[in-house]
Amino acid sequence: MTLAEPIIDFGPAETSSKPLDCLVIGAGPAGLTAAIYLARFHLSVLVIDAGRSRAASIPMSHNVAGFPEGISGPALLARMQEQAQRYGAAVRKGEVSSLRMEDDVLIANGTNFAVPARTVLLATGVVNRRPTIPDDLHDEALAQGLLRYCPICDGYEMTDRRIGVIGTGARGLREAEFLRSYSDDVTLIAPDDVHDPDVAKMVPLGASGIKMVNGPCLRFLLMQDEIIVELPGGRLTFGAIYPALGTDVCSQLARCAGAHLSADGCIVVDRHQRTDVPGLYAAGDVVVGLDQISNAIGQAGVAAAAIRNDLAGWRALRR
C-alpha cells in the first residue's frame, strides 16, 4: 500500500477556470468519505481543509467498526486521506472564506485562491466550547483521556470511574444522566458561580445519584490517571471531566450561499443531504443529527451518490 501524498498548500493567487465536478470543504470523516466515493465515480474532486477536524483530536476511538483494538483520530484520517488520493481526489490546505453562486457554478474563495465547482459538499463540522483552561494543558488532558467531549463515544471507558461534568441547565443535566449509566459517581459542576436555578426542578438530583457543586473551575491539575479541579469550595478528583458546554456550528459558508439553517445554526438538508441551494450539499456534524463518525460516514455516502446522480441529470439536460 502506498503512502498518501501530503496535503499541499495553495500556491500564490491560484484560480481555476474549469469548474470541478465537486469541491469538498472539510477533511474530516464526512469529507474524506465523500471524496472516496466521488473519485470512484470518476468525478473531479478537490478537498480543501483548514485542519480543524474534531476527529484529529481523538486519542483513541473504540467506536469505529472494523478496528477492534481501537484507532486514533489522526490515524483514521490518514487512512481515509490515502484512500481518497489513491482514486484521484486532491487534498489541499486552505480556508474558504466565502461561497457564492455565479452562472449556475458555485465559487469558493480563500485568501489566495478561487475554485469554481458545479457542486459543493460542506463537511465543516462543529467546534467544541471549551472550559477555561490553557491550551497546552487542555491538549495534554485530551491526549491522556482526562478531558473528554463525547460520552457516546467513550463513556464505556469511564465505567465505574469518578466522572465530572462541567455544565448546567438541560444540556448539562442530560449529559450527567447519560454518564450515570456508566458510573455511580457523577458530579455536575456549574461552569459559573452557581447552577441554573431550573436544574433542581428538572429532576431530584439526589434520587438520580448525580451530585451538584458550584463553580467556577479555578484550576486544573493533571495526574497520571486523574484530573483535579480546584473549585471555590475545594478540590475534587475525577477519572475524567466532560465539558457539556455545547458546540459552535461551522455553517457560515452555507449562510453565505443562502442555505437554510436550523435555529441552532445547523445546515438543513433533505434525505439526500441536499440543501435548498442547487448544487450545495452538507454532511457530518454540521447538519442536524447524531455527532458520530459512523453517522458522518453514512451521510457522506448518501451525499456522494446524490451528487453523482444530480450531475448526471444536469449533463443529460445539456446534451
From TrEMBL:
It comes from the Bacteria. SUPFAM superfamilies: FAD/NAD(P)-binding domain (SSF51905). Residues 21-300 form the FAD/NAD(P)-binding domain. Gene3D superfamilies: FAD/NAD(P)-binding domain. Keywords: Flavoprotein, Oxidoreductase. It holds the Pfam family Pyr_redox_2. Coiled coil: none annotated. PANTHER family: THIOREDOXIN REDUCTASE 1-RELATED-RELATED. This is Thioredoxin reductase. It comes from Mesorhizobium qingshengii. The lineage of its organism: Bacteria, Pseudomonadati, Pseudomonadota, Alphaproteobacteria, Hyphomicrobiales.
